[in-house]
Amino acid sequence: MPEYAAEEASGYEAAAQQFIRLREASAIGAGIIRHWATLLPAQAEVLDLGCGAGVPVASTLAAAGFRLYGIDASAQLLQTYRLRLPHAIVACETVQDSAFFARNFDAVVAIGLIFLLPAEQQTQLIDKVAARLTHAGRFLFTAPEQSCNWTDVLTGQASVSLGAARYSRLGSDAGLQLVAEYQDEGQNHYYDWIRM
User: Are 108 and 133 in contact (CB under 8 A)?
Assistant: First the structure.
């Protein structure tokens, strides 16, 4: 496991129970996920990167009837995810090292993940996701609109947003088209891409 990936995994592993409690107490972003789900084909196969404990993203997608695949580096978070969503297929690994189950997906979602990676790894992940999307597949992720750096309050990890203009270029270079942007009640910014 690369050094940064190990730090990412241990950050959320160490804070797993607190993270689960915080996410269970908040439905922030669930409305956007519900809306996004209406844009996907019936019975879509969806890959959830940094899936955590499954609330509210995966549980919302499961309620819409999609087949879920989840990847997270925290064993504790995945244990809770498996209990909540026993029909989902999951892997405990970093997104950087994952082969994404060696398959393509109708949609990929990455909420609260991209900005935890260094800039170069963010670029690589966007390319990797684009390569695993079916034609007209969608990719939804969150990152602040502005270019900025901060320390994650829960894990103490460094976080970096490349900013909307750079994400737009990276997505375009990967063969994606930005079709919408959303803001949830917690001021989280979402980018909704489609593979052309």
Answer: yes
